[in-house]
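If your schedule permits, I should be very grateful for your opinion on a structural question. Thank you for your consideration; the sequence and its tokens are set out here:

===
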Amino acid sequence: MSHIVVVYHSGYGHTQRMAQAVAEGAGAQLLAIDADGNLPEGGWEQLDAADAIVMGSPTYMGNVSWQFKKFADASSKAWFVQKWKDKVFAGFTNSATMNGDKLSTLHYLFTLAMQHGGIWVGTGLMPSNAKAAQRNDVNYVGSSAGAMATTPSDASAQEMLPGDLETARLFGQRVAEVTARLRG
């Protein structure tokens, strides 16, 4: 069985709920980046030992949170010695509006993965884009690059839509399936 780690920062709990759904689908370990942008004791070792790293951050002002960026910058130590080369990578994000510039966040995560020599996995999910589609359908936000969720700015993490969380769970499942094929 593959060893998958979901490393994420969550400012208000929404991205944490997505991380939990991704981890559930992937059978992965959760690794939270704290409010100061740091990993817990042993966090870097968890990432080094992983077959796949799934990264998550809320989209703030069109990009990852500063806490996630601090983690990303600190990953240059692993980059310098190519510790994460050929690992499977994937990413997810949440913002308050339907677009919310979430794709910019996923592009950032993708670029970080590519700098580490990683192999990127997208959602593999068809978008729910027919006239009959409902906001609570799987992949209603319509992302191929990674899982996206949209949660109104005045909604709690408990009010996230089941369709967005199911999208995250199915995304995690795909990451696990691809990782098993590529990493054995």
